[in-house]
Amino acid sequence: MKPRVLQLFAAGVNCDRELEHAFKLAGADVRPMHVHALTENPALVKECDLFAIPGGFTYGDDLGAGRILALEVATHLKDALLELHEAGGTLFGVCNGFQVLVKTGLLPGIDNAQVSLTWNDTHRFECRWSRLLADPSLDAILPTGTILPAGSAHAEGKLVCDSPETLTRLEAKGCIALRYADENGHATRDYPHCPNGSDGAIAGLISPSGRILGLMPHPERCLSPENLPDRGKANWGDGLAALDFFCGMLAPYGAVSPTI
Q1: Cβ count near 259 (within 10 Å)
Q2: Which position among 20, 161, 220, 222 bears the catalytic label?
């Protein structure tokens, strides 16, 4: 049986087809569903193994990136999502979806750890390729030290902790999934390798359970060597890390049969 993905969409989502394609390449059955249809029947969440929120600019990000969708999710779906998580399911969000997971409090997943996603240090939308370094907390999905190329495309992607102690707690609890890295594979906050100036060079968070995961850049945009900036000539890897990433998320829920 294929892993089952329920993928949310709403007004302003614009990366849903890429994400659906990535999950299908990794061997999943994907069911897209509009947020309003799902809020009318939240029990449908129980019928999936992985719940995904794609990127975009939901509701135009008019009140802040992901804020309106986060309010809808928190009000109507959060209990169902927590039940899915408690039953062994995974919650995943990329870019705007990551912003939703943070603003609903589903990430970072440890008590009294306050983080937010705010404007990039450049105070502008950044669209560029990024190298993401896998932390040990992501080891069940990607081996520690793996470099995951992904496309950054955000204006409010800077992850900020409310205190230095919170950053220390995130590290101690294994909640940092991915960090921005330079061409030598070293984590860095330096621009342009880190396009936003995130505390700790954080590009993605993972809950202590390992089953709530979100990141700002888009791995679904890099599923083959042809998608890489150098077309697979070694400076950005061989183009397989992103597919491995999606396969790793799905692996607990059935045999994955990636197709490329």
Answers
A1: 8
A2: 220
**Whose CA is closest to 22, among 254, 255, 248, 253?**
248
pLDDT of residue 62: 85
Contact criterion met (CB below 8 Å) for 242 and 22: yes
pLDDT, tens only, 34-92? 999 999 999 999 999 999 999 999 999 888 889 999 999 999 999 999 999 999 999 99
Q: Which of 161, 218, 222, 247 is catalytic?
A: 218
Domain of residue 19: give its range.
4-253
Active site residue 220: yes
Looking at 15, 20, 72, 95, which residue is catalytic? Answer: 95
Q: Is residue 258 part of a domain?
A: no
Q: Is 161 part of the annotated catalytic residue set?
A: no
**179 within domain boundaries:** yes
* CATH number of the domain to which 125 belongs: 3.40.50.880
Query: What is the per-residue pLDDT across 137-168, written as a single tens digit (0 to 9) for each?
Result: 999 999 999 999 999 999 999 999 999 999 99
**Annotated catalytic residue 40:** no
What is the identity of the amino acid at 4?
Answer: R
pTM of this structure: 0.96
Q: What is the pLDDT of residue 234?
A: 81
The pLDDT confidence band at residue 259, using thresholds 50, 70 and 90, is low
pLDDT recorded at residue 25:
96
Helix (H) or strand (E) holding 101, with range, is helix 96-103
For residue 182, tell me if it sits in a domain: yes
- Tell me which amino acid residue 112 is: N
CB-CB neighbours of 144 under 10 Å: 11
Distances 176 to 165, 198, 212 between C-alpha atoms, Å? 14, 12, 12
**Widest CA span in the chain:** 49
Q: Into how many domains does the chain fold?
A: 1
